[in-house]
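Notebook B, p. 112. Complex prediction, attempt 2.
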Amino acid sequence: AQTVTQSQPEMSVQEAETVTLSCTYDTSESNYYLFWYKQPPSRQMILVIRQEAYKQQNATENRFSVNFQKAAKSFSLKISDSQLGDTAMYFCAFSYNTDKLIFGTGTRLQVFP
Amino acid sequence: DTGVSQDPRHKITKRGQNVTFRCDPISEHNRLYWYRQTLGQGPEFLTYFQNEAQLEKSRLLSDRFSAERPKGSFSTLEIQRTEQGDSAMYLCASSLVGQGARDTEAFFGQGTRLTVV
């Protein structure tokens, strides 16, 4: 069975600084997808970034980038130039073959002015 | 299209009552998922549909839970004889898979928060 682990329940960062959120996962599959979702308070979950396991190049989306280490089964999210609007719960998720998502327990990120 | 819509946003019910939630996916999406999220946890998969066919159900989905997606459009999730442990946020998501174009990621609704008293 696939599992996703986020070992940082809470993180904080000052505005304009960089923060990295950690995620590890376990699977026996070789082709899969990894995601970071953001859930602002009382708002819907939105996709931040997505990585396909067969791609060696790390995905980037503006200020968001990942460090995907397939052998280590690690998938961290780096947020550069943090903004107040980045304050949210961040969930790492795994999906096999565009199937259901398996989520971690989340990291609550607080950005301070 | 305004995205995935869920109704109601909040529901308070007495233990033992039945409740039904509705999800309207993004119109061209063929996949529809239901997840449950309890406080401080990540969403947990409940079930999903490809068009009108229910393809997988989690062991979390007891006999008191039933989901439908008639005609492959909106979906309903019904909980019978609610228990306090059913209190959670119920999330719906939709995606487009296998239609020749690039598969889309899952788009989520704002959820229905259920409180069983």
